[in-house]
Amino acid sequence: MVKAVKEVESSRKGFLADGRPKILFEGHVFWKQLVKRGIDPLSLYNAGTANVLYKSWTKQYYLGGTTEYSRLEKATALSDDPAVGEAACCATSWGAFQIMGYHYEPLGYPFINAFVIDIYKNEANHLRAFGRYLQANNLLKPLKDKNWVKFARDNNGPAYSQNKYDIKLKNAYVIYAG
Predict the structure, then answer these.
(1) What angle do CA 36, 38, 40 make, to 5 degrees?
(2) How far apart are alpha carbons 3 and 114 in whole angstroms?
(3) What is the pLDDT of residue 14?
(4) Measured between alpha carbons, how far is 96 from 3 in angstroms, rounded to an integer?
(5) Given this model, what pLDDT does residue 159 score?
(6) How far is Cα 92 from Cα 85, in angstroms, rounded to an integer?
């Protein structure tokens, strides 16, 4: 079951060929993280930032691979305020299980950079963080029960069906279980 999640989230690999963890930067989450920190996203928004800062989810700006780091770096460079960089890291999913950075506290990390540093080290840390993530978000039972719809919805939100996340998980599980 864990292998199925890893397969769907990162194609079985938590690191890129250049040694950095796989990431996906989420511009709509960045927007929310800025608001959470009392920063008006509109103050940073313009035509040049539209690919890293947007109010609603879209995969239009996903680039994949190493180019996601370019998007993360662009977001962190929007301001000298360290809260913007923190918001950007929190708006990024990290590693083999693509755990959103904003989960760092319930996973036992004192701040986002501690989480990121840990994820940079090795896939064993990705797995440990995923275990804590499952516990903190009450996802262990749906995963054990192979309740792919509940797991997908609770892990990825209500739009999970647009990407057929539940079906991908089930299919990956069948391959690994077979």
Answers:
(1) 100
(2) 25
(3) 97
(4) 10
(5) 83
(6) 11
Note the pLDDT of residue 171: 97
Alpha carbons 9 and 13: distance in angstroms, whole number: 9
pLDDT computed for residue 48 by the predictor: 95
d(CA 162, CA 159): 6
Contacts of 14 (CB under 8 A, 6+ apart): 6, 21, 22, 95, 96, 97, 119, 123, 126
The answer to whether the CB of 119 falls within 8 A of the CB of 95 is yes
**Count of beta carbons in the 10 Å neighbourhood of residue 103:** 19
Q: Give me 142's structure tokens.
A: 């749906």
Q: 94 forms bridges with which residues in the sheet?
A: 23, 99
Amino acid (1-letter code) at residue 47: A
Give the Cα separation of 105 and 39 in Å (integer).
21
Average pLDDT over the chain reads: 96
- Nearest Cα neighbor of 98 from 124, 71, 127 is 127
Please state, in angstroms and rounded to a whole number, the distance separating the CA atoms of residues 156 and 165.
8
Predicted confidence (pLDDT) per residue in 71-93, tens digit: 999 999 999 999 999 999 999 99
DSSP assigned state of 42: G
The Cα 77–Cα 173 span in angstroms is 40
Radius of gyration for the chain, computed over Cα atoms and rounded to the nearest angstrom: 16
